[in-house]
Amino acid sequence: MSSSHKLPVSNPQTATSTSTTVPFAAPALRAFLTSTSDSLRRSLSRRRPWHELADPAAFSRPDSLSDAASRVRNNLSYFRVNYLALLAAVLALSLLLHPFSLLALLCLLAAWFFLYLFRPSDQPVVVFSRTFSDGETLGVLTLLTVVLVFLTNVGSLLISATLIGLGIVCVHGAFRAPEDLFLDVQEAPGSGLFLIFGGATAATPAVASRV
């Protein structure tokens, strides 16, 4: 009488853990950063010498309001790269003096980069087993941006820093006599600040297809 022995069969169950999947296109970000860095370097190479900007002998009181406006226009045409660098320095200093606002802004930019701008279009965002479409991801990021900019002090900080920077530029342009400056021929809209954003946009064609 033969007895059949049943071998124990282990049937382990794989536990499904909630995970967050965020696909990311690293080459696209690398190309964007490289293009932005190159464009920024080319734009900064067009800046005027800083000693011309701060030459004490070139400052004088404008004769009238129209003279001040004319000086501002001429100085903006000549020192536009220097003025943009000065404005960026004021913004950076304001953010450094408010670390929480700086951290919140960096987190928001990282969310836009990793979750939307440089994410492959064929790979959705999966957070805690919940799949988000492109439209839902864009809506959530837009809502977060509105809340951060308009319902916190980040927006007021950026606006106040921008106004302070523009005020410095206008005061300098009004009191800096441009008679000794050689005004170059007006460059095409592919130079200066436009070159920075133009080169960065050209490096990320996938971003434009999402909008």
Number of helices: 8
Total number of strands: 3
Task: Report, as a whole number of angstroms, the end-to-end distance.
Answer: 77 Å
Major sheet summary line: 3 strands, antiparallel
Mean pLDDT: 75
> Roughly what fraction of the amino acids lie in strands?
under 5%
Order of helices and strands: EHHHHEEHHHH
Q: How much helical structure, as a percent, in the residues?
A: 55-70%
Question: Structural class of the secondary structure composition?
Answer: mainly alpha
Gyration radius over CA:
27 Å
Describe the structure.
It is built from 8 helices and 3 strands. With 211 residues, the chain is mainly alpha-helical. The chain has a domain at 47-182. The protein has a 3-stranded antiparallel beta sheet. Helix 3 (65-96) runs antiparallel to helix 6 (153-175) and helix 4 (99-117) packs antiparallel against helix 5. Residues 7-20 and 185-199 have low confidence and may be disordered.
Topology:
Layout: E1 20-21, H1 26-44, H2 50-53, H3 65-96, H4 99-117, E2 125-127, E3 130-132, H5 134-150, H6 153-175, H7 193-202, H8 205-210
Antiparallel strand pairs: 1-2, 2-3
